[in-house]
């Protein structure tokens, strides 16, 4: 048997394009060829189970063999095998139509994955690393003859009689000079560990040496001999392929440690298992998070039939759950040949919604089953819940019942519970409920104490996402606004009818304002007199709630860049009813008046951490001189 021919692709430029566009991702050749070998192995097993193959199955496995001296890599299986006709059908006729249009469309393309993915060129990824590729195969079909196919990376191929005597296929790659990195055993082991760690058929790559007991010596002590065993690189039955009923907590924790060996134990996990209207399995873990903006994404691994595809899962997993760890496996996710990039379609959207629902249901279940344990985990899971609360309306509908609020007294409330707690004392004259919060309880302690003296409760909102969470609460909660505790003096945070009377005359008020304007002499600080309780501070410096919030969002990249470029502006609230203001007015010496006003202003700045550098030094020296 001998035949020569031309691969039917209607262009001689396909191989240079494969090599050029996939060069940056050329390690996928091994994944593709091993995956094909696994498919062939599973198919023969399936045919046997259906009674369509009655021969001996033998030891079903895939073997990867390296011959560095001869510069070859061989991927062997004992699966279906192929006849010469099947080689011509499945290998020579690359299955796509309109090759000319394809070439025209993608001649300037930069996305290799799109090219390969659209036209099913998985086998041809071999030519990214090989000058010559051989197929040596024998079909399972009775009476089939072995066949050998060779191609040198051009469109010319040759089919001759093969040498295999047993069912299956060998793919032999004659590695090119540019790809000799793959002639390193360690490099191949790394690729197999990455992509084939959980394939459903055993993958053999070389052997391991180990000690085995071999009788006893003259003194009766055990003797050992060195034996070689197959180096099987994969676990063929990972936990996500099993039923949750078969698994214990220990199994989930051990698998987590296998995936993330240097991470703390997860808080809890969710086992995904659905077969309609799409097929999806997997395990998602809630990790312990630091309370900062360290969003460690790309920790979820995507598989397709146990073949690792990618850890870029942003289309499948909702954005707010990208902080989870674990695995997802679905044959229904449309993947290109490199199996690395997702194509958005209805299945992906359904899977996204399903995962959102499963996570919400799990959190609701934990909250109802053991609220104390849920509260103990809140520091770790609060970031997930708030992120989802903000970004996903379907998740919000469930999360509004188990999202928690913490106050500075270290108490915890649901949204409904907190409303009941504060509505009697924190409703303004317009009937609007006002929630007061701090994002830095140490720095804003003076403001918190002032609010507490008024009988107001102060929420703690100091996570990286709370600036957005606060704004979202205002959108979702009926007739409710949120103000940071230092947005105004305590008497003005909630506008009520019972403001203290102003004890200064109009002339005195003007005089005080002039004294402070002159002493401060900074355009960014606008002086205003307020009628406050005599027990409040003589001077308080605040920033408008709206402006401060917009500037903080701009700093976090929240699309408020215009506000980020605006200069900071502050309100200097002078407590007209404080005895220090009366003293300033009674002081006849102009310099002493200015010095007292400046000292009161600097004290206000100091209490908020706004006094730094030379101004702080000046304040200290002035304070010493006044003692």
What does this structure look like?
With 627 residues, the protein is of the alpha+beta class. It folds into four domains: 2-205, Histidine kinase-like ATPase, C-terminal domain (Heat Shock Protein 90, 2-Layer Sandwich), CATH 3.30.565.10; 239-377, 2-Layer Sandwich (Ribosomal Protein S5, domain 2); 404-493, Rossmann fold (3-Layer(aba) Sandwich); 506-552 and 564-626, Heat shock protein 90, C-terminal domain (Four Helix Bundle (Hemerythrin (Met), subunit A), Up-down Bundle), CATH 1.20.120.790. It is 37% helix and 21% strand. It is built from 20 helices and 22 strands. It has a nine-stranded mixed β-sheet with strand order 1-6-5-4-7-3-2-8-9. α9 (371-391) packs across α13 and α18 (579-586) packs antiparallel against α19 (590-607). 34% of the residues are buried. Mean pLDDT is 83; it is low at 95-103, 109-120 and 337-341.
